[in-house]
Amino acid sequence: MSSLPKRIIKETERLVSDPVPGITAEPHDDNLRYFEVTIEGPQQSPYENGVFDLELFLPDDYPMEAPKVRFLTKIYHPNIDRLGRICLDVLKTNWSPALQIRTVLLSIQALLASPNPNDPLANDVAEDWIKDESSAIDKAKQWTQLYAQPKK
Amino acid sequence: MITIDKMNGLLHVSVLSQSKKTKNKLLGKVLDSTLCSICHDYMYVPMMVACGHNYCYSCLSSWFTSNETQELSCPQCRANVTTAPALNTTLQQLLETLAEVSLDDTKKEKEGEDVNKDGSENNDDDEKSKIDMNTFYSSMEESKNEYNMDKRNENLFGKVFINSAMAVIDEDDDGIARCSNCHWELDPDFDETDGNVCPHCSTRIRNRVPESGYSRTTSDAIGGGQRRGGFDSDEYSEGELEELEQDLQRYHEASEQSIRELDTDNEGEEGSGGMSAEFDRRFPIPRQGRNFLHDDEAEESSNNGDDDDDDDDGDEAIRQRRRHIDMNQEVESDLDSFIADDDDEEQELDVEELDGLSDNDSKRNRMVLQESESERDSDYYEHNDDGYVSGDSLVDDQPDQEPQQQNKRQRRYKVILQGSDEDED
To answer: Quick one: which of B278, B248, B249, B251 has its CA closest to B263?
Structure first.
């Protein structure tokens, strides 16, 4: 493996020494570009009290290219599909090298707090969300209960 | 202890009178401002974007060149970057000063180690900072060399500010955004499919395509992109265009001349009206660019008049030829020498005509006949692809045969007439 850029080392150090509240990110032992991430569901959201597992990978071009992030835990959200892929502008066209792992994870946490059914990735979820928001929120809560319980 | 220069401003006084803790905190902030938000390292060569944000030269360069189909934007504020960032010498000096000070202090402490024994507890730190300063200076050297090399080779930012275009709206024109390289119309939403690239000339557009109404003057774009000398994607160079214009002018004059001569030519034979009256009737307002057509139509109609009389073919052919000699005289003045020969040639033809044209297998004469027939049918060239349309085939003709050359010229002329005719349609 090619030597790790200074920036990645610095970011990793800071993620450990000064973690973002409600978010953990630990590099994999075998591959320092691969991170195991957990994000707590934001308060007053359908995902409250849930802990979601994600994987994050820093491509070779990082930070010129956005990190690749995916939900591993099942989640009922209009902008996250069955495979856990996330529809978020900063992960695609609006990526900027001034962003970091921590800011990206914060953006994902913010996305949980404010689902956007008008720019959907999971069409069926988005339709439900627009048709009957309260029942969709109930379902999201159920799924959080079912799949996103913190490991003991 | 601290002497405050009276010349210094209020801020100097205020900062210098702070506690050591506050000063350290402040110094930390100052040091942070020398860090690049892309690589999180010191900006040895800080480049300032027009919006005011600073990055390492190499970081900014790789960001601009990382995605060839994106507009250029500031990583921190996403402001559009249309002009090349400039070296921020103030920030560069600040970093160098900070480094020099810490290096001096390290040296002093080293020298005074024997005298000042209380430095012993910091010995490890001194060693560490010394090593760090070495890597610091070698990194700085490396970064500066890279920048200076690119600057010398006019390769700053991978030439992205030289090789990209801008979306420009000329309010005086039509208010539509156009590529500053090829003037192709740019759709404000075009980047959603193919990226921020001109769909016509494939040049990267470095600004966002503005919606109509957003005004960016033409001079702005020129200021940002004087580098595009000519229109490299255009079909013609400037010299070629000039040449074409001159050609057009020459043919225009020539055709006018030939109309006048046709007029006098026909007056004797066809009597009433003359050709010019016929032209005026058909095309009451002669427009520029249609003169070729006039000429074409003129010949056609004059031929139509004689069409019923097949025996006149030879005679008509010679008459046609004479006209074309006159025409060529105007078209290419350097033909003067040939034209003298042509007159002799014509007399020869006259003799041949007397011998009886129909049986004559003289090559030259047949050429003339063919020519005559072709002129009877305005669609001749459309339906007979005999290769004369190509300029190359004309050149390949044997140049030593005078009549053929005449025909060649005549045909070339005809082709142009035909071309203009088609264009009009």
So the answer is: B278
- Substitution target in A4, A6, A7 with the highest count of B β-carbons within 10 Å is A7
Strands (E), B113-173: 167-169
What pLDDT is stored for residue B23 in this prediction? 93
SS3 state at B199: coil
Is residue B56 over pLDDT 90? yes
Q: What is the ipTM of this complex?
A: 0.87
Question: pTM of the predicted model, to two decimals?
Answer: 0.58
Q: Which CATH superfamily is domain B34-161 in?
A: Zinc/RING finger domain, C3HC4 (zinc finger) (3.30.40.10)
Q: Are B66 and A7 a contacting pair at CB < 8 A? A: no
Residues of A in contact with B76 (CB under 8 A): 96, 98
CATH number of residue A59's parent domain: 3.10.110.10
- Strand positions, DSSP E, B207-304: none
Judging contacts by C-beta atoms under 8 Å, the chain A residues touching residue B143 are none
Tell me the C-alpha distance between A54 and A37, whole Å: 5
Whether B37 contacts chain A with CB within 8 A = yes
Distance separating alpha carbons of residues B377 and A87, to the nearest angstrom: 68
Q: How many domains does chain A have?
A: 1
Q: Would you say B59 and B49 are in contact if contact means Cβ atoms under 8 Å apart?
A: no
Range with the lowest mean pLDDT among A6-15, A51-60, A66-75, B280-289? B280-289
Evaluate whether residue A30 is within a structural domain.
yes
